[in-house]
Amino acid sequence: MDDQAFRIAMGKFATGVTVITTSIDGEAHGMTANAFMSVSLNPKLVLISIGEKAKMLSKIKESGKFAVSILAEEQKEMSMYFAGQIKEQREIDFEWINDTPVLRSSLATIVCDVYDSLVAGDHTLFVGEVKYLASSDAEPLLFSAGKYRNFEKVGS
């Protein structure tokens, strides 16, 4: 199978959208990702997957911590910005929790210390031990088949 066929098939799995952040010497760094999942309730662990070519890889290795901001439907522009789809530089008003930047108004915020990591193919899987979390009620930003999606409201 070729790489494109694999990407198309994997893109059929609808996901939420996150922005992964960390800081080095008080400077915030972020990237959009949809490779995120919960792992364990006891201890509370989550997993993110970062590509070997992503600048974020060395940043998380150096900082030993990361945050996951699960994006709400109205944060599509933040997703596009941290994915590099919006090129002009912007000043992001981060909230700082445990010396880690997170996006304000996210559907959920999860701040972690790196618990473990594993190189798997061309990605590194970081398992994070949750040190802080908060959530709110809003509709999630969704991604499937290379496009942003949203829930269609259906009568009950």
TrEMBL record:
Q: Mention one GO biological process in which this protein takes part, according to its record.
A: pyrimidine nucleobase catabolic process
Supply the Gene3D superfamilies for this chain. Answer: Electron Transport, Fmn-binding Protein, Chain A
One family from Pfam that matches here is Flavin_Reduct
Matching entries from SUPFAM superfamilies are given as:
FMN-binding split barrel
Q: Name one GO molecular function term.
A: riboflavin reductase (NADPH) activity
This protein's UniProt keywords: Oxidoreductase
Q: Which residues form the Flavin reductase like domain?
A: 10-150
InterPro entries given in the database record = Flavin_Rdtase-like_dom, NADH-dep_flavin_reductase, Split_barrel_FMN-bd
Family matches, as PANTHER family:
FLAVIN REDUCTASE (PTHR30466), FMN REDUCTASE (NADH) RUTF (PTHR30466:SF1)
What this protein is called in its record is Flavin reductase
Taxonomic source organism? Paenibacillus albiflavus
